[in-house]
Amino acid sequence: MAYSQITIANYIKQFSCEVDAISEIQVPEATSSCGEVKMTFDDQIFSGGCLGTLVRTYTYTDACKNEAKAEQYILLTDKMEPILYGVPKNITIGKNEILPPPAQLSSRDNSGQNFEVTMTETKFNNQIRREWSCTDACGNTAKAMQIITIE
Q1: Strands (DSSP E) found in the chain
Q2: pLDDT tens across 73-116, in order?
Q3: Alpha-carbon distance 85 to 132, whole Å?
């Protein structure tokens, strides 16, 4: 009986990747003299960088039940700001009308995380400006503003 072994082609072992592009990571190719090679992988996130380091472990098996493993260390990056939800439109109210309470905005980031939204309110002449902001773990900031004009 001939001895067979799974051979994993050269691959990049350590690199950075945008969090939105994880599904596009190129899988290391593997071959075996014992037929088709099947691949599975397991992901674990460890601290490091703004979103962490993804350690992806590939496990290859062939028809002879041989097994081989390959690991990639992927520093996750994020260049997109979070999205703010519930931003109110600019409005005009009469000077005797009651000022509506500030909207409670929520956020969502492409990393799948939610972050705290802060609000500031300033008054200048006949306008009230409400500004909301949210900063994700990678320092990307989303901002929104509502202007309330008082007639």
Answers
A1: 6-8, 14-18, 30-32, 38-46, 53-61, 67-77, 83-85, 91-93, 106-108, 118-124, 127-135, 141-150
A2: 999 999 999 999 999 999 999 989 999 999 999 999 988 888 99
A3: 11
Residues forming beta bridges with residue 40, ordered by sequence position: 59
pLDDT tens digit sequence for 5-63: 899 999 999 999 999 999 999 999 999 999 899 999 999 999 888 899 999 999 999 99
Handedness of CA 77, 104, 119, 142 (dihedral sign): positive
Rounded distance between C-alpha atoms, residue 12 and residue 70, angstroms: 10
Q: Which of 123, 146, 124, 120 is nearest to 133 (CA)?
A: 120
Half-sphere exposure of 126 (CA within 13 A, CB side): 9
The set of residues, in sequence order, having a beta carbon less than 8 Å from that of 57 and lying 6+ positions away, is 41, 42, 43, 44, 69, 70, 71
CB 20 within 8 A of CB 112: no
CA distance 81 to 108: 9
